[in-house]
Design brief:
2 domains, Chitinase A, domain 3, 366 residues, 4-stranded antiparallel beta sheet, alpha+beta
Length: 366
């Protein structure tokens, strides 16, 4: 995800969904193996996009050798890389392009994708070789524990088997990948590449330079009571619902508790158990008629009966937040994590280049 896309998404969703930030904070606090695995994959995707001037084409090599009908297209310190390894990655990319409407895929594009896939596999192989020099005495126990967690999450052996089939995996290949990720995780930690810190000054500078990305539109916290009406309801059904909504409004006017009426009368299953609470909403989140009424209310005020395509609503304004900028205090952790990931990717990419300087890489791909 590009920096622009990341913050466009933040701005679009706004700060109404506070639980999104809570999730980010929670993830930052969890320094577990799974989070490092995800980080590894993120870092390797960055490496894919880099150029590799230190890789030389071995023009003096003879025709590429074959092993069980598999064509060798590269060697990394003597370890063979086969054509079918990059074919899988290229085909995935081509399918994505096809889904986006690019049906006429030129040979130049295919060749470019092949070279990118090969570079990524070379980077992975170099890291795998470096990480395998580590001694991890309980590696098999860690692999088993990781698989046990996956099975526990899927809840049954049948679902686990469906998971393997959907991912085109066998239990052996899943164990191999898990083992490889554990080695990589430990290797990155041994090289000081996983817990790099971002200073407060860097966070403040980032916030100030991109402050417009943290704009917050006006939002209101509202609760509502809904008397629903089917889309194709007959006039008499609509009239009955309208009369029910009018009775509810009258009860509120007479002093009945809003939450109590929600519990007994509202047809909104999503909010009925929380007193009708819709949280903080921005304009456009609800139908126009609802927005117009909600944003016109004062704090604590209850609206008249409002008709939308869902039926008849009675709205209570609980709180209002004016437009402005999300304070740095509320996005500090979000920015810190974002910058930390970028720093880690940068350091790992540089480390891979150092390893490649000392490696013998032979490429037979035209």
């Amino acid at each position: 995800m590009t920096e622009g896309t990341l913050f466009e998404t933040w701005s679009r969703r706004g700060f109404r969904q506070r639980n999104q930030l809570d999730i980010e904070k929670s993830k930052m606090r969890k320094r577990n193996v799974t989070s490092h695995f995800l980080l590894i994959l993120s870092c390797l995707s960055l490496i894919l996009s880099l150029s590799h001037p230190n890789i030389g084409i071995c023009s003096d090599e003879k025709e590429p050798s074959r092993d069980n009908s598999r064509t060798v297209i590269a060697k990394v310190n003597g370890i063979l890389i086969y054509e079918d390894q990059i074919t899988m990655e290229v085909n995935k990319k081509l399918r994505k392009f096809k889904n986006l409407g690019m049906h006429n895929q030129q040979p130049e594009l295919v060749n470019k994708l092949k070279k990118q896939a090969l570079e990524r596999i070379i980077d992975q192989e170099i890291l795998n070789q470096a990480s395998r020099k580590l001694a991890i005495p309980d590696i098999e126990n860690q692999v088993k524990a990781k698989l046990a967690l996956i099975k526990e999450k899927l809840k049954s052996e049948e679902k686990f088997q469906r998971y393997l089939k959907a991912k085109n995996l066998t239990i052996e290949s899943l164990m191999t990948t898990t083992r490889q990720n554990i080695y990589l995780n430990e290797y990155f930690k041994s090289q000081g590449l996983t817990d790099l810190q971002v200073s407060e000054e860097e966070i403040k500078k980032f916030y100030e330079q991109r402050k417009d990305s943290f704009k917050s539109d006006e939002s209101v916290k509202v609760s509502h009571i809904l008397v629903s009406v089917e889309k194709d309801a007959k006039p008499e059904a609509k009239l009955k619902a309208q009369e029910k909504a009018a009775d509810i409004k009258r009860m509120l006017f007479e002093g009945k508790d809003f939450v109590e009426i929600v519990n007994t009368c509202s047809d909104c299953s999503r909010t009925k158990q929380v007193g009708g609470d819709l949280g903080y909403i921005k304009r456009g989140f609800m139908p126009p008629e609802f927005d117009q009424a909600a944003f016109a209310l004062k704090k604590g005020e209850v609206s008249d009966v409002i008709e939308t395509r869902f039926g008849y609503h009675i709205i209570k304004l609980v709180d209002r937040k004016p437009a402005g900028f999300v304070p740095l205090e509320q996005v500090r952790d979000f920015i810190g994590k974002y910058l930390q990931k970028g720093l880690i990717r940068e350091k790992i990419a540089a480390h891979v280049q150092e390893l490649k300087q000392r490696a013998r890489i032979e490429i037979f791909l035209n």
